[in-house]
Write a structure and sequence with these properties.
CATH superfamily of the largest domain in chain A: HUPs
CATH class of the largest domain in chain B: Alpha Beta
CATH superfamily of the largest domain in chain B: HUPs
Mean pLDDT of chain B: 92
Structural class of chain A: alpha/beta
Radius of gyration of chain A: 23 Å
Number of domains of chain B: 2
CATH class of the largest domain in chain A: Alpha Beta
Largest sheet of chain B: 7 strands, parallel
Strand order of the largest sheet of chain B: 5-9-4-1-2-3-10
Strand content of chain B: 25-35%
Low-confidence stretches of chain B: none
Shape of chain A: globular
Low-confidence stretches of chain A: none
CATH architecture of the largest domain in chain A: 3-Layer(aba) Sandwich
Number of domains of chain A: 2
Largest interface: A-B, 91 and 109 residues
Distance between the termini of chain B: 71 Å
Shape of chain B: elongated
Helix content of chain A: 25-40%
Structural class of chain B: alpha/beta
Radius of gyration of chain B: 23 Å
Number of helices of chain A: 7
Oligomer: heterodimer
Amino acid sequence: MENNTLDIIVCIKQVPMVSELPWNAKTGTLKRELAQGMMDPASRLALEAGLRLQRTGQSEDRRIRVTALTMGPPMAEEVLHQAVSLGADHGVLLTDRKMAGADTNLTSFILGRYIKMFKPDTGLVLCGSQTSDSETAQVGPQLACELDFPAIGWASDIRLSQRSLIVTRLVDDFMETLEMDLPGLVTIDQGAFVPRYAGLAGVARAFVSPKIDVVDADRLELDSDFNALEDSPTRILDVFSPATQKESRVLKGAAKTVVDQLFTDYGKIISSAMGKDLKKE
Amino acid sequence: MSKKSTGKDIWVLGDYRNYFKNRVTLQILARARALAGKTGGWVCGVVFGHDVDEYAREYIAHGADRVYVIDHPRLKSYGIETFTNLLIGLAREMNPDIILIGATRFGQEVAPRVAKHLDTGLTADCIDLDIDDNGLLVQIAPSFGGNLIARILTPKARPQMATVRPGTFHELPHDNTAQGEVVTLDLPEDLPTERVRCTHSEYRPAKALGIEKAEIVITGGRGMGSKGKFKKLFELAGLLNAEVGATRPVVHAGWVGHEALVGQAGKHIRPKVLFSFGVSGAIQHTAALMDADFIVAVNKNPNAMMMKLADVAIVADANQVCSGIIRALKEKIRD
């Protein structure tokens, strides 16, 4: 930490709006190229945690700077603009074809390399506990290994003390209070905070002075033959849509018609599960 | 100790906190037993703690050939950096072919760090595991937001690592006569100082939300339309004596609390009848409801995955059908 400045890096990710993904019924595959991107909800909570620390922990003696960091295709810059509009001081996009297809091991390697090269004085890294598109909960702890930072997962509350961080979390039915030395890394649990919305001033700021840095493989001095997809220890063998295991009975028509049909044919199953008799019409 | 290892050993990390509720280690041992039948390796449990003999014996009774134990007063309370370090050290020494870890919070903390330090791959939340013709571990897990299932290999790096959610596999019956070897190891001297210190810990079991045991469950997705309309499901639940669950988008939208989440990251349900309204059917959600005996799904999109898993697939507006069932039930329930 230089001159009593605490640098917080919040790792965020752009994810597809899963529930809105257009599905190709014929082939059973996703039309991913049509998918709209949004900031991963867990990342948004991590950003919220960082902004709250900035508000409550900043004083005359200590300045707190919040940088949003993401890796992804060029379009992922959108979530950095959003982060700046919400209050982040800067945004950084790591983007390069060579970084595409990274698994969690390689993703944490690339994020860690950026932080070590460009933000060596980082005091705190915040991540979402798990992203909504892959839900692995792996990048946070693996990034901590890259940086040799201590780390705590699934925080529901964080507080700064002098040189350490006090974290509360509920895991595996244990409510814990933990104290962690800084620099360190924390992942924020789902439901920990209600995230803020961007005010008009924030949106204006994000457009007028976006403060976004774009970093490619060369600036990270990655090997010339670096290829995240090839270098990842895991390989996707194939991908398939889940087998349909049931011969479904399909009911179509007006609501009234299908409801009547449902009770006529399956009323017994429903009433038996309810433990109550149902009148027949 | 007889032979050091077979070179094909399958390790299962012993997760014994909260033992009677948390059966994930036993469930994974059962699956490891089946995998070892194909590779010829041993199934090895790994236990760190203090006074943990009983767990070692329990793991043998549930399918382990061998259990590695490090028993020391310093390990009485769990420290993430210590436990991670012990597993990394042991793995470097013994070279297991596969390490499987239960996806409790404990396992989800340990597994990625161990994988990172050993510079190997890790697949989270596998819904199935298999061995292919080349003897590689096939890690079968949800991908692309749960709309698809991927088969994942770790071709070169070792060990091959995966985590598995509780409830994915079934434990083997307890066998008192099972033979196995307990290998007790010393605590290494060069353990790191914990940079994370636990100052307070309190057992706080989740309130028994009836949903995991309910005979009838109603789940709702974004297809319900809005927070206000979603509330209708609670009226229906009152009539059916049912519990209400939700998908992740609904929870994220704030229509209901996180405790209602049905999915790998939430509740696992086993109702006699499941009504599913406006749910598209991401695998993380459907994996937690496949034990339902009878599924009625309502969705405008006949191709939604949830519709294909249903016994009765109603192609209609979820909201209108919900209202229709409420109306019908009010007439049909005898006073």
